[in-house]
Write a sequence for this structure.
């Protein structure tokens, strides 16, 4: 599902705090993106994750899983016909 923006409250996590969340498997078909635009330069770049986290960032809020960061990695996984990817999941309380 494609969303446009973050419907969940601001969490304020830094990159360091995200890194403390252990990755877990997430089914691609359960993710809602928070970005409606895909940058093909980032998608096709060989070093697109070189400076960032290797794992996508997902926010779980009100029963939904929102892909906050890592759309390009999720799309690559889908193009390789994988149904899951490993992501860091932050569970926000309602």
């Amino acid at each position: 599902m494609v969303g446009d923006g973050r419907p969940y409250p601001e969490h304020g996590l830094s990159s360091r705090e995200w890194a403390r969340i252990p990755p877990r498997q997430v089914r691609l078909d359960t993710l809602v993106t928070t970005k409606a635009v895909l940058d093909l330069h980032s998608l096709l770049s060989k070093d697109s994750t070189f400076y960032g986290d290797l794992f996508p960032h997902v926010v779980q809020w009100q029963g939904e899983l929102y892909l906050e960061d890592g759309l390009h990695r999720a799309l690559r996984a889908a193009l390789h016909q994988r149904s899951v990817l490993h992501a860091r999941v932050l569970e926000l309380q309602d």
In short: The chain has a mean pLDDT of 85. The chain is about 20% helix and 30% strand.
